[in-house]
Amino acid sequence: MLSRVRTAALWGLEAFPVECEIDVGPGLPGFILVGLPDASAREARERVWPALRNAGFQVPDRRVTVNLAPAERRKEGSSMDLAVALGVLCATSQAPAARLDHAAAVGEVALDGGLRPVRGTLSLAEAAWRTGAQTLLCAAPAAPEAALVEGLAVHAVASLEEAVHWLRGADLPRQSPASPDDEGGSTFDLADVRGQAVARRALEIAAAGGHHALLVGPPGAGKSMLAQRMPGILPPLRPEEALVVTRLHSAAGLRLPGRGLMRARPFRAPHHSLSRPALIGGGSPPRPGEISLAHHGVLFLDELSEFARSSLDALRAPLETGSVWIARVSGVACFPASALLIGAMNPCRCGWLGHPKRGCKCTPTELQHYAARVSGPVLDRLDLQVEVPALTSGELLASEPGEPSARVRERVVAARSVQSARGTLNALLTNRELRELSRSIQPAGGWSSMPWTVAACRLARSIGRCVSRARSQIWRPKNE
Which whole number is the average pLDDT over 255-279? Predict the structure, then answer.
């Protein structure tokens, strides 16, 4: 007998529909799985057969052939286990197949007949919905995430036995979407930062206009402290942005089962020893890298000069286009990568160049070699390059507490609303658009009343003057 069950498989961020065809016919007992399955998918028999037996069902003693269509696309993972198990039961007349005409099944089968959630459930549910499926059966822990797909009736099943009861006509409650998840939001406040008025103002403009920034200063100046507070001044995620961020983290396997939409902007701070695929994405099948996991959030690269130069140079295209394309023989995957990059590095190899109390011991040649660790094209993509000087204990004690993140965030949200009405962030303006916009602005009043674009330009020039003085020693030192 022949049965068909709809399911889906994950490739990169996107999932594609798969039709699981099961034929149970005469011949020696065996199990054949075709349709370009990878190693984890080929192990379905070793999971499904014990699960059927332990759940009280009969294991077929005939030849079982399973085809995962379309046959030209490689399938990976265990998301098709439940479809294979239900298809075998329907093909052997142990369960009716009528309800499967408008349903899909996603989930990994445990040896005792239970169901486990799989990576990328949200993308898999969207793929099932695009095929016309009106109902989705999935593991109970992953059901709240799958229910985020509007128009899809999701039923949480804990075991094969419960899924078969539904096929036989039993009613299962429709799963409701999980409530938005605010876990992981920034707990750091800019009010904790004393002094560093220029760096604070630069971060505010970077957040308002979507500009990448580089913080240069000696150890202990507060570079990491400033970067950690960047998510707290960014606007909240819009619903469509939250959905993409949730899909990315689900596809990477970083979401706990049962979580809802991610409402807090991600903050990723990888170690400088990570590899190039870990930074931009890669592998087979492709997985999102840190630049994609920080999509619509902040990617903080501390000790920027210690990262492999090949890894940093691989960021050139993603910083320009906001996406990463990974090509493999079996297919091409695209990951969104519109992250705000914040880099931090010391001014020299020893770290004490420009320190008020400790002198730098680096030679001009060492300064040049240190500056060459970050290529010019990467530095060119960092719109704001800010000097973060070390403050003495007296200066820290005399400094007033800074503005809280909530107040700064209000100004950032107001600036973003103006840019949203225009349709383009400041960082994405072309030369022509920038010239036309500059002519149309007539600043009046003081600094606080100036439009954001003009304020950004004037502050950028102010910061540029500060950094240029350090650059003469940091980037192009003169021989003494």
Answer: 89
Determine the pLDDT at residue 352.
Answer: 86
Residue 13: C-alpha distances to residues 72, 115, 239, 292, 311 (Å): 19, 23, 18, 10, 22
Contact 267, 230 (CB under 8 A): yes
Contact call for residues 105 and 138 (beta carbons, < 8 A) = yes
Q: Look at the domain 2-167 and name its fold.
A: Ribosomal Protein S5; domain 2 (3.30.230)
- Nearest CA to 309 out of 380, 371, 373 is that of 373
CA 283/CA 288 separation, integer angstroms: 9
- What is the pLDDT at residue 5? 94
Domain ranges of the chain: 2-167, 190-474
Cis peptide before 70 (omega within 30 of 0): yes
Residue 373 phi, psi dihedral angles, 5° rounding: -65, -25
Pairing of strands 213-216, 153-157: unpaired
Chain mean pLDDT for the chain: 86
What are the CA-CA distances from residue 449 to residues 159, 211, 271, 442, 446 (Å)? 63, 21, 41, 11, 5
Give the pLDDT confidence of 407-419 residue by residue, as tens digits. Answer: 999 999 999 999 9
**pTM of the predicted model as reported, rounded to 2 decimal places:** 0.85
What secondary structure letter does DSSP report for 132? T
**Mind giving me the DSSP string for 195-259?**
S-HHHHHHHHHHHHHT--EEEE--TTSSHHHHHHTSGGGSPPPPHHHHHHHHHHHHHTT-SPTT-
Element (H, E) at 161: helix 160-167
CATH of domain 190-474: 3.40.50.300
Q: How many CA atoms lie within 13 A of 239 on its CB side?
A: 3
Inform me whether the pLDDT recorded for 184 exceeds 60.
no
The tens digit of pLDDT for each residue in 86-109 reads 999 999 999 999 999 999 999 999
- Nearest Cα neighbor of 386 from 130, 139, 203 is 203
